[in-house]
Amino acid sequence: MKNRKRFYKKILIVDDNLAMRKMLEGMLTSLGYKDIYSAIDGESGWEKILEGDIEIVISDYVMPRLNGLEFLHRIRSSKEFFDLPFIMITGADNWGDFINTVQAEVDSYLIKPITPVRLEEVLNQIHCQQKSTSPYLKAIHAGKHCYINQEMAKAFKHFLLAQAIEPTLAKPYYYLGEISKNHGKTADAEKFFKKCLEIEGNYINAIIGLADIYSLHNDYPQMITSLSNALKVAPTNLDLHLGLARASFMLGDLMNARKSLSQAAKIAKSNRDSVMKVVDAYVAYGMFDEADYLFGKKLEDDDNETVKFWNRLGLKAKENGDFQKSKYFYLSALKLRPQSKEVNFNIAILLYEQGEYDNSMAYASKALRLHPDFLEAQQLINALRLKLDQLSP
Question: Is pLDDT of 251 > 60?
């Protein structure tokens, strides 16, 4: 084994589990590799890559602070490192999510438990792919390079060439569909995505591409069909559930919209950005109680942020014509921050529009008293005085 030629000099292992990092380091050492680096998550892994000379990345899928998929997306969207070989590690229970890496162009994968034999096979396989002089791989590489650099016309030509060389492979059709979609040629994009799926039915991002097209055409039944198919492949994909909720909402199917958002909330767990996506969806669809509950359960750790959120709910409820709910959220915010300029003014506007002029005057006057340079509050007070004068006997 010591006499075998090693293909890579600098290998980066990215995993938040110390035992897994040590195990992989031991395997690589036994295979003859010496320059092995490690990082505990995608952010620190990215810093290692920026330092230069990393030749291949072996990364776990589930990690805090930039998980494996997000880490891979960052690499693939960079002009300098877009073609860096990347091996993803996943457990069998994460297989559905792992399929999402199709679009992000993972080079290979390792399913736990990992063996030295399988690790060596994957490393050798990637090396052979890199050294290949295949016209198809050259066209794909050139296409991705142009795609990353926003040279879409050139990218389209390269992927079209790749498709002509290997018409039975799915990847060129996916990229041709993406480029067509981004240029507004939705009929062509739909054709390419469908061809991609004829070849590889689980090519999840082609399914999502079709859903995007149906969304653009307000064809929500077809959008639901596409997203439901995608969820069969990746049942824990947050964005798929959010898309399904949107399509259901647009069709007036609030029960299924709530069901999809509830599932999305479970998937989001305690990831702040993911939870906020679900909260935003609840707010957009007028499901204010659900939004308030999820925010309070997962995100409510700062009074200022809570006041801003309740003020936002008040504005959205008012926009939806739910004035009682709007008033409830404004009053809840004022219990936490009685001196809030925005909330005092917003509830004053709400009461003014509801004809409660005396109560509106109280809140507007309070806002102006707390913030003497508040021009909008002064203008509202002037309007209120006119109304009250008109109503005086």
Answer: yes
Number of domains in the chain: 2
* 254-282 burial code (b ≥16 CB/10 A, e <16): eeebbebbebbbebbeeeeebbbbbbebb
Question: Does residue 346 fall inside a structural domain?
Answer: yes
Residue range 257-280, pLDDT digits in tens:
999 999 999 988 877 888 999 999
| 214 vs 25: CA distance, rounded Å | 47
For residue 69, which amino acid is it? L
> Quick count: other Cβ atoms within 10 Å of Cβ 59?
25
Per residue in 6-36, pLDDT tens?
566 799 999 999 999 999 999 999 998 989 9
Of 131, 147, 166, the last residue of a domain is 131
Query: What is the pTM assigned to this prediction?
Result: 0.72
Q: Exposure of 383 by Cβ count < 10 A (0-12 exposed, 13-18 middle, 19+ buried)? A: middle
DSSP string for residues in 28-42: HHHTT--EEEEESSH
**357 contacts 382 by C-beta, under 8 angstroms:** no
Give the C-alpha separation, 392 to 390, whole Å: 6
Write out the residue range of the structural domain in which residue 102 sits. Answer: 10-131
| Length of the chain as a residue count | 393
Asked whether residue 3 carries a pLDDT value surpassing 50, the answer given is: no
**Residue 348: CB partners within 8 Å, gap ≥ 6?**
360, 361, 362, 363, 364, 367, 377, 380
3-state SS class at 203: coil
C-alpha to C-alpha distance for 20 and 41, rounded to whole angstroms? 13
**Final residue in a domain of this structure, among 131, 161, 180:** 131
